[in-house]
Amino acid sequence: MSGTAIRTAEVLVSSPGRNFVTLRVVTEDGVEGLGDATLNGRELSVASYLTDHVVPLLIGRDAHKIEDTWQFLYRSAYWRRGPVTMAAIAAVDVALWDIKAKLAGMPLYQLLGGASRNGIMAYGHASGRDLPELFDSIRQHLDEGFRSIRVQTSVPGVDAVYGVAAQPSSSGRYDYEPAQRAPLPAEEDWDTRAYLRHIPRVFEAVRNEFGPELPLLHDGHHRMTPIQAARLGKDLEPYDLFWLEDCTPAENQDALRLVRQHTVTPLAIGEVFNTVWDYQTLIREQLIDYVRSAVTHTGGITALRRILDFAAQYQIKSGIHGPTDISPVGMAAALHLDLAIHNFGIQEYMTHSATTDEVFRTSFTFADGYLHPGDQPGLGVTYDDDAASRHPYQAAYLPFNRLKDGTVHDW
User: Which residues form the Mandelate racemase/muconate lactonizing enzyme C-terminal domain (predicted)?
Assistant: First the structure.
């Protein structure tokens, strides 16, 4: 064990285009593993949890004991679950899997059972303030190689809508990173009735322009009540969506029963979930079609694999969360898992900025609509300390919504 005992564990916070929290674990023999602990808009909470409460527990532990370490960190804290705890555990878990695969001399997916497919179908993020702009964005994504497209659009009468790239943002493209580098979160407006009137017309126009074969996705971003979500799902049925994502806040898992009763539009849920307990009713009663959790926020590869194996019993597939608030380390971990599991569905993919790619050097590739994690031993990601040192942390917050009467609403 002496060579695989953990010698150091270091929390790295950098901001190459946006904030990331990375855990670097090094064994006595000098084998290094990386894990992603980024929690968008609350990054320092996870950095502190790791530095103050987890790192001291890792020194001297055998890096090979992934399952034992996972159970130790989950159960010994007593206060279980939640995004901060589970992101911290995920960072440790992924770093240890990275080390184990490097020691084995294999890409990580080989240790997860080997490849179940040749490539990983990914979807891109098209958006526009009006239909011509949206059509241009879809064509651009098709030219870039995407073969599945998420469609987001501005809503008449609403000033700013999540996921529309052309809207102003302190960080550039709005769908690249909506978190604003500012001391307080930005306030946006929302009108659900206007949204429900507008979105079906958008998808009708997109289908008329691009035909019936192109897989189309849409993100409701938790803003509808169950009955509103049911209405939208039913109204979108003629346009054959690949999925409707986060149609209603799903902390109340029973709410999805009502949605399911009224529409056959496939449903994807879970990017804000952290454990299998968040999914228990949704999976057992087959109230969703795709699991949307991220490796980074759900306790790592060990935990998310269990959730997806549970989902597979009910013919529910994966749709792992993968925007740019998942670092390239977290993205690589998702791709290794995607390649290995049988019930893969689709992978979200947003390209990171060139600055981010200078800090995180990756082996994964994207071509003709498909991702692949590469065949380097481990995750296939290295961290450039010199590049990271040029980009210190900057406070940033995600926006929030208010209705016209001033009521705070789900963003």
Answer: 132-266
